[in-house]
Structures are given as structure tokens and as C-alpha cells.
Amino acid sequence: MFHMPRTASASPERVAETFKDELARVDLDELPLQQGMTRGSVALGDDLSAMVIRTESTDERVRVHAGLFFSSLVAGCACANDPTPENEDAEYIEAVFDIDRPDGATTVTLSESSQ
Questions:
Q1: How far apart are the C-alpha atoms of 24 and 21, rounded to whole Å?
Q2: Cα 2 to Cα 29: distance, rounded to the nearest angstrom
Q3: What is the dihedral of CA 43, 98, 21, 103, to 10 degrees?
Q4: Is residue 57 a contact partner of residue 15, using CB atoms and an 8 Å limit?
Q5: Minimal CA–CA distance to 40: which of 89, 110, 106, 107?
Q6: What is the pTM for the complete model shown?
Q7: 3-state SS of the chain: helix, strand, coil percent to 5?
Q8: Longest distance between any two alpha carbons in the chain, whole Å
Q9: Fewest C-beta atoms under 10 Å: which of 10, 13, 91, 101?
Q10: How many whole angstroms separate alpha carbon 72 and alpha carbon 79?
């Protein structure tokens, strides 16, 4: 669990923008990138970006359904004779972020379309 307090307190018009800004500061190990990827064996977060698909707000929580774009690679042993090239592949998953109010405690799960 991590915290997104600015998103939790953002007005409905600013949730998407605030969410993307706060997401850029989240430790990548907190996100389900590794579980959702389909091409590589190691998720890279250097180029993580998000597309907000839908938001829902109640008095208790903000829910953000987002598409996450990132890269992965198939990691080899990096030995001189290893035939596995280390090429980056584009990855995409959809995740649901449940952000509690008022403290911003956040849980994230893969959406069913990414499982």
C-alpha cells in the first residue's frame, strides 16, 4: 500500500491530472507491472506513463481506472555467448487504484482485462 493524498483531496475536475502527477512519484515495486506484462520477463519503469480511463468519486474514496504504458525486456544472463538479445518491448496493462479519503491510502489491482 502507498499513499496518494493529493489525488484523494483533488476536485473531480482535477483528479486525472493530479493522479498522473502523483503516480510518477510512486515506487514502481508498488505497481502490478510485473504481474500484468505479456512480452518480457522484467518490467522497466523508466518510461511509465498513464492514461486515465475512468474515475469515480464518493465521500469515502476515489477510484481511478487507468491504462499504464511501460517497457519490459527478456533478461538474459548477459554472458558473451548468450544469444538472447536485450530488446525492450512496449507493454500495456489496466489497473484500478482505490484511494481512500482523507489520507490517500491506495491499493492497486490489475483490472480484469489485464489478467
A1: 6
A2: 11
A3: -130
A4: yes
A5: 89
A6: 0.88
A7: 20, 45, 35
A8: 58
A9: 13
A10: 19
